[in-house]
Design a protein that fits this description.
Radius of gyration of chain B: 22 Å
Oligomer: heterodimer
Shape of chain B: globular
Largest interface: A-B, 37 and 54 residues
Mean pLDDT of chain B: 89
Structural class of chain A: mainly alpha
CATH topology of one domain in chain A: Four Helix Bundle (Hemerythrin (Met), subunit A)
Mean pLDDT of chain A: 76
Number of strands of chain A: 0
Helix content of chain B: over 70%
Number of helices of chain B: 20
Strand order of the largest sheet of chain B: 1-2
CATH class of one domain in chain A: Mainly Alpha
Low-confidence stretches of chain A: 176-194
Strand content of chain A: under 5%
Largest sheet of chain A: none
Chain lengths: 194, 486
């Protein structure tokens, strides 16, 4: 067992542990912290796969920016403890949950126990070519083969921004296009009643 | 660097229709800063749809691929693009007055419809799973927002959240499936997946397991999008809560987009996989039966139409189970016909909902035939089409699908399908009965028929009747659409 394998096993275990703890926690802040832990461990795996740039991006963007943003939002919303997560689930739903969970786990084990890990141990998976995973390589792929998906991602982000504004924008009371008409007032009272 | 640029195979001819819609959406978003631009926004949206339609027609008969084999251009894609564009044009017409009455007239509505349609068109023309996924997201994100567009209404917000969560859940399945397929086939390109599949399938080691798990997971993901039965739980609440023009839109367009990709991947790409045929058989039977049986018990027209749209997805799944040129062309025919009469039915519901306090319950339809004989007649037409009476397009669509099924030896499937059609007659005719024969309690509030809604009603009614009387043209188009598909 060489050093690479040791590092891989440690980081893989930490990643799975972090992900499991993340969904097992009832406190959202702890969940986010565990997710960050898991992401950092995954970044180590990426680096081991010679994907240096992706590993760095994972830490900087996901663990660094997005998760910290999550943390801020959760703290600002002041979500705490178990009271926000509702009652414990009913017996039937618990049964389904565990059944599906066990089935999925078995399926995963069944799938994973196949080739790749064995191949990795015996060194069947070849070495990556020089410069693989560097910024230059990633950029070249992104702007040649994956140019069209790259542009589409831009459109997708634009839509996400527009959508977020539509959902979250505060309405000015005097705006003629926003004033509540008689009709909507009627439907609203009905909806409140139902 | 020149060699890279030439290797890109950038060919804008493949994506002009998408570009037209994106330009239209951007113009709307930027232009809405100025107050004086706002009145022309619907016109801009409409014009970009029509321009996209013309540009898409130009692609008819051209075969090609580009952008490093990410986009393909064929008649099949063009056919579906026209379906999406018809749906979005009718939706634009429907929304015009409804939004004003409900106080929702915001420019984003039009931009989001255009964005969503562009995403569907990307899906229809995809040659790569990555592009397909991005198209699906570009289609879905605007729909999530549109479902919750009426923020003052609790139901609309609920619809938005529910649709978003279930959609995100489905996306996770789909993405996992794509990852598995990529792992097994070593590519995301559809054509190369199909060529690699021939040796994966006969390779009974772990690779085949990855591949089939991937296929199963993507099937679940698409099942959510087309609202097939074990994955339909979100449909009724979302359809009921969303603003009605939006409901009209996502009862047809995303379904058609989902079917476009499913046909491309499962029917053309992986034809002859017995496991898939069995899976589709089960899905089709469940979707038809559960949709129809649950629709029987609904007292709300929008909910009833939601369940009915589930069962119609089942009829199209019958065609997918059967496979082969006849069944697929009849599926396309049915999709066009369904787009027409389902949009029409929702158009009538939209008109009814512009009255104050209307919640589209069945009881609110009473007396419609006395106050608005034409509207009642047109509603009856759409209901007859939905239940599959001749001479409407609904009858012919079902006829083509079921006869293709019988020809290929799927007798039981056809029998179950026909039985389901009979069951559905009950709840469709109940609408007509309520509108024509039920006793009127109190005063019937008349509705206002604005010119835009009348245009939408005329388009859909003409489509429903026209396809019923003259199906030949469309049938030839849909046969040409799949001609030469692998």
């Amino acid at each position: 067992m060489n050093l690479d394998t040791v590092i891989f096993i440690v980081s893989a275990v930490v990643a799975v542990f972090g992900a499991t703890m993340m969904i097992a926690q009832r406190n959202p802040v702890a969940s986010v912290l565990y997710l960050i832990l898991s992401l950092v461990a995954q970044a180590v795996c990426y680096v081991q796969l010679s994907a240096l740039f992706l590993g760095a991006i994972l830490v900087v963007v996901y663990a660094g920016a997005i998760m910290v943003l999550f943390l801020f939002v959760i703290m600002l919303l002041n979500l705490r403890g178990s009271e926000d997560l509702g009652q414990p689930p009913k017996a039937l739903s618990r049964f389904t949950k565990y059944t599906i969970g066990i089935l999925m786990t078995l399926e995963l084990v069944f799938i994973i126990k196949g080739a790749p890990l064995k191949a990795m141990a015996t060194g069947l998976i070849g070495k990556a070519p020089d410069g693989f995973g560097s910024v230059e390589q990633v950029a070249r792929l992104m702007f040649t083969d994956y140019l069209y998906p790259f542009e589409l991602t831009g459109v997708l982000l634009l839509i996400a921004v527009v959508g977020a504004v539509v959902v979250a924008k505060s309405r000015k009371p005097g705006d003629p296009e926003e004033t509540q008409t008689e009709e909507t007032a009627g439907t609203n009272t009905n909806e409140a009643g139902s | 660097m020149v060699d890279y640029v030439s290797a890109l195979s950038i060919d804008f001819n493949l994506i002009w229709p998408e570009i037209a819609l994106l330009i239209g959406a951007s113009v709307i978003l930027l232009g809405s800063i100025s107050k004086s631009f706002r009145p022309v926004i619907p016109a801009v949206a409409l014009i970009s749809c029509i321009v996209a339609m013309l540009l898409a027609s130009q692609q008819w008969g051209h075969q090609g691929s580009g952008f490093a084999d990410m986009v393909t251009c064929d008649n099949f894609g063009v056919m579906f693009k026209q379906i999406f564009l018809i749906a979005s044009i009718v939706t634009l017409f429907l929304g015009f007055r409804y939004l004003k009455v409900k106080g929702l007239n915001r420019p984003e509505y039009y931009a989001l419809i255009l964005f969503s349609t562009a995403g569907m068109m990307v899906m229809a023309n995809t040659a790569d799973l990555v592009v397909m996924f991005l198209g699906l997201e570009i289609m879905s994100l605007p729909l999530y927002v549109l479902a919750g567009f009426n923020r003052r209404s609790l139901e609309s917000s609920e619809a938005g959240i529910k649709y978003f969560l279930m959609g995100a859940f489905a996306t996770a399945f789909l993405l996992m499936g794509i990852a598995f397929i990529y792992g097994a086939a070593e590519t995301t390109n559809l054509r190369r997946i199909v060529t690699n599949f021939s040796y994966i399938a006969y390779d009974y080691n772990s690779t085949a397991i990855y591949f089939y798990s991937g296929i199963a997971l993507t099937l679940i993901g698409f099942g959510f999008k087309i609202a097939a039965v074990p994955f339909h739980s979100w449909v009724p609440d979302v359809y009921q809560g969303a603003p009605t023009p939006v409901t009209a839109f996502f009862s047809v367009a995303p379904k058609a987009a989902g079917f476009a990709v499913m046909l491309r991947i499962f029917v053309f790409g992986l034809s002859g996989v017995e496991l898939l045929t069995t899976a589709f058989w089960v899905l089709a039977v469940l979707t038809m039966s559960v949709g129809n049986i649950l629709a029987l018990r609904q007292d709300n027209v929008k909910r009833m139409l939601a369940y009915s749209s589930i069962s119609h997805a089942g009829y199209i799944l019958v065609a997918m189970t059967v496979g082969g040129a006849d069944a697929v062309s009849s599926a396309i025919f049915y999709l066009v016909a369904y787009t027409m009469f389902n949009l029409g039915a929702f158009a009538v519901v939209t008109v009814m909902e512009t009255r104050s306090g209307c919640r589209s319950e069945f009881s609110e339809l009473t007396g419609l035939s006395k106050v608005h004989p034409y509207l009642a007649a047109i509603l009856a037409l759409f209901m007859f089409a939905l239940s599959g009476f001749p001479p409407t397009a609904g009858f012919l669509g079902k006829f083509y699908i079921f006869s293709a099924a019988v020809h290929k030896g799927f007798i039981w499937l056809a029998v179950i399908g026909v039985m389901n059609s009979f069951v559905s007659v009950y709840y469709y005719l109940r609408v007509i009965k309520t509108a024509y024969f039920d006793e009127v309690k109190g005063k019937v509030t008349p509705v206002v028929l604005s010119p835009t809604v009348i245009i939408a009603l005329i388009i859909t009614a003409l489509g429903t009747l026209g396809l019923g009387f003259f199906p030949q043209q469309l049938l030839e188009f849909s046969q040409a659409a799949i001609f030469g598909m692998p």
